[in-house]
Amino acid sequence: AVSKVISELNQKLTGMALHVPIPSVSVIDPTCCLEKAAKYNDIKNMVKQAPEAPLEGILGYNEDQVISCDFNSDTHSYTSDARAGIALNDLLV
Questions:
Q1: E strand or H helix at 12, and its extent?
Q2: pTM across the whole model
Q3: 2-81 belongs to which homologous superfamily?
């Protein structure tokens, strides 16, 4: 669905959505195939900076231990959970 909205991501991004028992919260598990190798910590640092302008209020970043109901009142469209991500290698994150 992402590639239908952002065509440049076609065949570059995939993911999985999971059901969580909270009606106002959802979970996605995006997977990216990179053209250039990158260390996962460098990617996390870039994602951590993304919620600053112009994406302030749209993207969020979290390093706390949380569960789905912790996001009930979160107003961000997307919040990256730094503890939940992994890199399979430097090209697949």
A1: none
A2: 0.69
A3: Dihydrodipicolinate Reductase; domain 2 (3.30.360.10)
